[in-house]
Amino acid sequence: MQVSIVIGNPNPGGRTTRLAEAAAKHAVETLGASDHATIELIELATVADRLFRWEDEELAALNQSVANSQLIIPACPVYKASYTGLLKAFLDRYGNNGLAGTVALPVMMGAAPHHALAVETHFRPLLIELGATVPTRGLYVLESQMDDLDAVVGSFMETAGPLLARAIGG
C-alpha cells in the first residue's frame, strides 16, 4: 500500500507534519497495512520555488507518485479560513480527475475552533474536483491539542478508519 503525505505548510517539519504523520500512522494501522505500507512524505516548502515550472521533472514525479497512491493525506494549516496557496499550487498541477483512483483524507490544523469547517467547505471539494474519493469528513486539529495528538487522531480514526478501509477496498 502506498500512502502519500503532502504538506502544504511553508514551514517544513512543524506541527502540521507531525499531525499528518500521526494521521498516516493511525490510518495504516486501522487498515491493517502496517507491515506492507510505504509512506512518502512530501514537504512542499522544499520545492516551493519551482511549483510554477510546469516542465519540472522532480515535481512531475512527485505529482505522479501521489496520483499512484492508494491513500493521500494532504495537510496544511488554516490560512485565511482556507488551505494554503502552497498546497493549491501543487494540486493545480493535476488535470481533471488527476487524482481519480485515490482515496484522500484531508487534514488541517488551526488555532481556533471557528475555522474547523475550512476542511469541509474548502479543502474537501477541491480534492473531489480532482477526482479523489473522500469517504470521511476531514480531520481538523487545534494547535492546543498537539500534546494529545495520538489520542485525538486515534479517536477520529475510530469512525474514519472503517470508511477509509471500505473506500480503499480493504
In words, what does this structure look like?
The chain is α/β, with parallel strands linked by helices and 170 residues long. It has helices spanning 15-30, 57-67, 85-91, 118-129, 149-168; strands at 2-7, 38-43, 71-77, 103-104, 107-110, 139-142. Strands 1, 2, 3, 4, 5 and 6 form a six-stranded parallel beta sheet that branches. The longest helix is centred in the last third of the chain and has 20 residues, at 149-168. The chain is globular. GO terms for molecular function: oxidoreductase activity. This is NADPH-dependent FMN reductase-like domain-containing protein.
Would you summarize the structure shown here?
With 170 residues, the chain is of the alpha/beta class. The protein has helices at residues 15-30, 57-67, 85-91, 118-129, 149-168, and strands at 2-7, 38-43, 71-77, 103-104, 107-110, 139-142. The protein is globular, with a radius of gyration of 15 Å.
Which key phrases capture this entry?
5 helices, 6 strands, NADPH-dependent FMN reductase-like domain-containing protein, oxidoreductase activity, FMN_Rdtase-like_dom, single chain, six-stranded parallel β-sheet, NAD(P)H-dep_FMN_reductase, alpha/beta, 170 residues, Rossmann fold
The residue-averaged pLDDT reads 96
Major sheet summary line:
6 strands, parallel
Annotated CATH architecture: 3-Layer(aba) Sandwich
Helix tally?
5
Please, how many domains?
1
- SS-based structural class? alpha/beta
Shape: globular
**Portion in helices:** 25-40%
CATH class: Alpha Beta
Kindly estimate the percentage of residues that lie in beta strands according to DSSP: 15-25%
Tell me the number of strands. Answer: 6
End-to-end separation in angstroms reads 11 Å
Radius of gyration: 15 Å
Order of helices and strands: EHEHEHEEHEH
Query: Uncertain regions: pLDDT < 50 for 5+ in a row?
Result: none
Q: CATH H level: which superfamily?
A: Flavodoxin domain
CATH topology: Rossmann fold
